[in-house]
Amino acid sequence: MSADQITDVEGGDGTATAAAAAETTAEVTAAATYPVAPGYRVNVRSGPGTDYSVVRALPEGTSVRIYCQMSGTRESGPYGTSNIWDNIGSGQYVSDAFIRTGSDGYVAPRC
């Protein structure tokens, strides 16, 4: 995710600009939602892997907010093979291979 333009509001050493840009980026990232792969009902698990119990399933067409990410079991899905698991709520994880984040890497802080 990137900013199109950053304007120096202080006109000085750029500290205020960097802080404002970081705050704006954090707000955008926190508010971002990512769609589940079309045609899939994705299992939500209690932890970052297939060894954890299924707590519910996301219906087709759902978008999720990713609060943090961590490594877990490797899964293959429509967006490749990944060991990244997305935390979408307390005790709720989905494989990143089924979420369209636009990246093969981390898009949220690590859990």
TrEMBL record:
Q: Which Pfam families match?
A: SH3_3
Q: Could you list the residue ranges forming a coiled coil in this record?
A: none
Quick one: where's region Disordered?
Answer: 1-20
What are the SH3b domain coordinates in residue numbering? 23-103
**InterPro entries, sorted:** SH3-like_bac-type (IPR003646)
Q: Which Gene3D superfamilies match?
A: SH3 Domains (2.30.30.40)
Q: What is this protein called?
A: SH3b domain-containing protein
